[in-house]
């Protein structure tokens, strides 16, 4: 996929959308110094180019009773395609997993897991190890979230 050329106005629009995608086109246009129709056309083109993905809302995990955030470090001695397919399928079907990354280095995968408490984490863990053989799992409990953002650094 080729990277689209984004001019300063496109970048200003992206900054506004990341800040609050629910704001009106009129508000975005006013803030970026343009009018409604050109802003709408640029947003449409950036969606078509894949720069803008799906829109959603951000929920407060604690308000939903999901007070525990674990970072789960996974090391495996299995590196064949069948194991990886089973592991990825297991991770993808678990709503507790907010993020999953394959890593370079000593740790193979890191998962960000949101659950109600340690008992709920154990249920998650038991299910995961039932699905796939894992060499080593280390769970790190986040004591305090210092920064969490979905905003990417887009400079105008």
TrEMBL record:
What this protein is called in its record is ArsR family transcriptional regulator
Annotated keywords: DNA-binding, Transcription, Transcription regulation
Give the organism, scientific name: Pararhodobacter oceanensis
Biological process according to GO: regulation of DNA-templated transcription; response to amino acid
Domain (HTH asnC-type) spans: 6-67
Q: Where are the transmembrane segments?
A: none
The terms describing its cellular component in GO are:
cytosol
Q: Which InterPro entries match?
A: ArsR-like_HTH (IPR011991), AsnC-type_HTH_dom (IPR000485), Dimeric_a/b-barrel (IPR011008), Tscrpt_reg_AsnC-like (IPR019888), Tscrpt_reg_AsnC/Lrp_C (IPR019887), Tscrpt_reg_HTH_AsnC-type_CS (IPR019885), WH-like_DNA-bd_sf (IPR036388), WH_DNA-bd_sf (IPR036390)
GO molecular function list: sequence-specific DNA binding
Q: Does the keyword Transcription regulation apply?
A: yes
């Amino acid at each position: 996929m080729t990277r689209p050329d984004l001019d300063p106005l496109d970048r200003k629009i992206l900054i506004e959308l990341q800040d609050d995608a629910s704001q009106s086109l009129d508000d975005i246009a006013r803030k970026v110094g343009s009018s409604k129709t050109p802003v709408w056309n640029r947003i449409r083109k950036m969606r078509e180019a894949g720069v803008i993905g799906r829109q959603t809302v951000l929920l407060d995990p604690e308000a939903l009773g999901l007070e525990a955030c674990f970072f789960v470090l996974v090391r495996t001695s299995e590196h064949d395609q069948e194991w990886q397919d089973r592991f990825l399928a297991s991770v993808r079907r678990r709503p507790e997993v907010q993020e999953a990354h394959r890593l370079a280095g000593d740790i193979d995968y890191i998962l960000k897991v949101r659950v109600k408490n340690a008992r709920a984490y154990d249920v998650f863990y038991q299910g995961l190890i039932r699905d796939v053989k894992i060499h080593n799992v280390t769970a790190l409990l986040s004591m305090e979230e210092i920064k969490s953002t979905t905003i990417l650094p887009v400079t105008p």
